[in-house]
Design brief:
With 416 residues, this protein is an alpha/beta fold. Helices cover 37% and strands 26% of the residues.
Length: 416
């Protein structure tokens, strides 16, 4: 058994609460967790870690020590100990035994069995990955890099919560971060602090929101502005205004695909001519689990899934780099797991992104101005080089990086 897990269980048996909390955090880091869930059930309290997007049950402890555990976490994150009826949010800074500095974002929620605590781990020593590490390749890499090199315009990343949008933007800012440019960021919250950037955190409770922050940033003589999220008409208006006055604006928005982002912005009330004049590129992304290199094995694929794969590959743009032999063989891989010590028997280790990048070009601009349907814009984008999330996933599955099961858990099949 892992020594850290043993230490955690010893702390539970000994009733050593500070040690229990620290060991829970320390073991979570070893397992590369993003969140720690402490959940009171009827007769027990369970601790679960979110590893590579999936929750993993780690350990449980008796309910009689739960109030002490909650109080300990609340003291660490400056929350009110005596307030148990309403949810609370706070932050804690922790240094582990190995000397790693961490930020914990702590959230408490009253449930029928007691307070549930969730700690989001933000590792300050965590390096921002390169585009290559993120999994941006081929046409997507070409289009996204070209859009970043333009002097002005709007660049959007889109996808559900937890799909790595902010990490992608940080990776982009890392490339743009040079001594001769002024980069401003308006975030909620500031997740990773980077040298050379002027990062500001919004406070909606005192009316410091994204739109207000963006307006203020424009008075700070910026070259590049990153806005955490476009949520409303006001923010999108200021972002467009900023790009028209010669700034490069990076932001995120919540939609399912690159093409749906166009519809969403039009629905916000932005005139089509303004959108076509300012948006450089839209990148949709998802995260899938990487197959464990040590235990992955070839898998057979059922007929139905093979049909989906063949349809997706038949519309792949000829410019997209691929291995023709692999496209013919259609050999896919799956998790081995069980006794593997590298992935703890899960079969997956780490995550990789799937990306589709819609590059704004004249044929797409014309369609938007003609009020064309999403389907028409999608087809035109694919004809001019866009690789869909499904196609990007299938190509990564052919490389043995992930499994088809993972791909179709996040990407919609083309003919669905």
């Amino acid at each position: 058994m892992n020594a850290k897990l043993q230490a955690l269980q010893d702390a539970i048996v000994g009733g050593n609460i500070p040690q229990l909390v620290m060991n829970a955090v320390s073991y979570a880091i070893d397992l590369r967790s993003s969140d720690i869930h402490i959940e009171p059930q009827q007769n027990t309290v369970q601790i679960r870690y979110r590893v590579d997007g999936s929750l993993l049950r780690v350990v449980e402890y008796p309910p009689n020590i739960h109030p002490a555990v909650v109080s300990r976490i609340k003291i660490m994150s400056n929350l009110k100990i005596d307030e148990q009826r309403i949810p609370q949010d706070g932050r804690a800074q922790v240094t582990t035994q190995e000397g790693r500095e961490l930020d914990l974002r702590v959230s408490s929620l009253p449930t029928v069995n007691g307070e549930k605590m969730v700690m989001r781990i933000q590792d300050k020593s965590h390096e921002i990955p390169t585009f290559d590490k993120l999994g941006i390749t081929g046409n997507s890499l070409k289009y996204f890099t070209a859009a970043l090199n333009l002097p002005n315009g709007v660049l959007l990343t889109t996808g559900p919560t937890g799909s790595g949008k902010t990490t992608t933007l940080y990776a982009a800012l890392q490339i743009l971060n040079k001594p001769d440019v002024n980069i401003m960021t308006i975030e909620d919250p500031v997740e990773i602090q980077l040298d050379g950037l002027n990062q500001s955190q919004v406070h909606p409770d005192i009316d410091y929101n994204f739109a207000f922050g963006l307006r203020t940033a424009l008075r700070q003589d910026p070259d590049i502005i990153m806005v955490g999220e476009i949520r409303d008409r006001e923010t999108v208006d200021v972002a467009i205004e900023a790009s028209l006055t010669g700034h490069l604006v990076l932001s995120t928005i919540h939609t399912n695909s690159a093409v749906e982002t166009i519809t969403r912005i039009l629905n916000m009330g932005v005139p089509a001519f303004l959108m076509t004049a300012t948006i450089n590129a839209i990148m949709a992304q998802r995260l899938v689990r990487r197959l464990c290199e040590k235990c992955k094995k070839p898998m057979s694929t059922d007929e139905q899934t093979l049909e989906l794969v063949k349809t997706a590959l038949s519309h792949l743009h000829p410019d997209e780099p691929h291995d023709p032999a692999k496209l013919t063989a259609l050999q896919f891989f799956g998790p081995g797991g069980v006794d593997c010590d590298q992935c703890n028997g899960v079969g997956y280790f780490g995550r990789v992104g799937l990306f589709e990048v819609l590059k704004m070009n004249n044929s797409i601009r014309e369609l938007i101005l003609k009020n064309a349907s999403s389907m028409e814009i999608q087809l035109a984008s694919m004809k001019t080089g866009m690789v869909t999330l499904e196609q990007a996933g299938v190509l990564k599955a052919l490389e043995g990086i992930t499994s088809l099961e993972e791909v179709y858990s996040v990407a919609r099949p083309e003919n669905a």
